[in-house]
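Write out this protein's structure.
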Amino acid sequence: MPGEVYERGLALRKEVLGAEYVERSFANADAFSTAIQELSTEYCWGTIWSRDGLSRRDRSLLNIGMISALNRPHELKLHVKAALSNGLTRDEIKEAILQVAVYCGIPAGLDSTRLAREAFAELDGQD
């Protein structure tokens, strides 16, 4: 039975990433992958993203840097889109990626720039 932290995480995850995306993630989960969806919802969203210490905007900025550095393309596109709805501008996202390029390497910056442009194009209906 889901608890309060899980329910808070589910609501926040839907607000930030979009209800359609989250519902599709659960609908596509099977016996093997349901556990990671639940873990992410409860601990990532219900415990960490729900804390008062940082704004959603700041958490999005951090995520863009970390996910770019870790070279997680699927998650980066998702979080670029979420960052815009959390108050970051496209220029701020660009600046974050330039920071990644300097500290994590030009290939990480180039890949992240390409992925951010793809995310912007999808949002603009140019996919």
